[in-house]
Amino acid sequence: MNNFNNLKEYIALNTDRYFSRTKEILKKNGDKTVIYAFFLRTDSIYAPSIVFDFLNKAKNDLGLKFNLYTVYKEGDLIKAGEPIWFLEGSFVDLCELETLLLQRIGYPFVAAFNAYVMAKTLKNATFISMGARHYPDSSVAYMVDYGVSVGSRRAQKEGAKGFLGSSTKAGSSFFNLKEGLGTMPHGLIGYAGSTLKAAKLYNDCFKEDPLIVLVDFFGKEITDSIEVCNNFKELAQKGKLSIRLDTHGSRYLQGLDEDKSWQIIKKYVSSEVIKSFKDSEVLHLVGKGVSVAAIFAVKEALINAGFPLVKIVVSSGFNVEKCKTMAKANAPIDVVGTGSLLADNPNKTFATADIVSYNGAPLIKNGREYLVKAMQQLVLKSKN
Fold first, then answer.
1. Same domain, yes or no, for 326 and 193?
2. Predicted model pTM
3. How far apart are CA 258 and CA 292, in angstroms?
4. Tens digits of per-residue pLDDT, 97-107?
């Protein structure tokens, strides 16, 4: 995704102005060799390929020389505030790169961590990264999907099914897929005029693909699910049909309210587990939208109708906290589609860089002295 016809011009257009002015000052008054420390403000997973691609392109296109020091491998866990690497080189060469490097760190590192936690939490469910439409542009979506693939691989090594792919073709390349994943949006249901007709239209065009039917458009999740199953009975009985629940958070799934949701929960979740839920988790348990109760209600209806093998795909706000609630309740989920892969607080996605040394002399702004110590342990050790 780093396609730049003129990298020098791209940097000049997109770096922070104070870095460009710093470069002018350095050219007039003399250069120094500096060491930068890069870190994030939240826990993350090491996912450096995209930022390293950019750094190497700058090296090749602009003839830069630098040394990079890191102890991490792709997929390693990193605690908040810990330096992820140190970059040593000419202050003149590196100062304008800071903005562009930081832009390529936070998204993949944080998405990797959240994807890892989600996948490990719901280890028996398969995930699909579906956040592309939520991000400001395709480059962010690309970075997020790369990070998701890194976090997913770590979770898979620990026994989780992990992420199958992305909703976009570009993102799915990180999962060794040629195409993006997904079947139908709500717009197709509206176009068709009924959930069943939309399912037929889709199946007619893509007979070889798995059939995943979105069932919340008309607010009849259960009756529309059963109608679709009855029409595609052979697929349903072979476990090749999936029902996708995407009920939004302003209403309950068909037939439910708070009292009926509690009745469902008490039927399928032990009293000991129910007592363990925090107040913040109760909304995901019995609230509006795709709650634990909603998922159990649909699964029960499918079983009672003779379709126990029909899979349930869920989406709508599946962040780390919601996945943890679903796992604690052992909700019958087969696939999770999620675009909630970044921190709820944008500040927790930001990466930061500080210079820790000038011409070999350690120096940093007050309060970040621990970075100097980390630099001395890694950089100076590697040079001796």
1. yes
2. 0.94
3. 12
4. 999 999 999 99
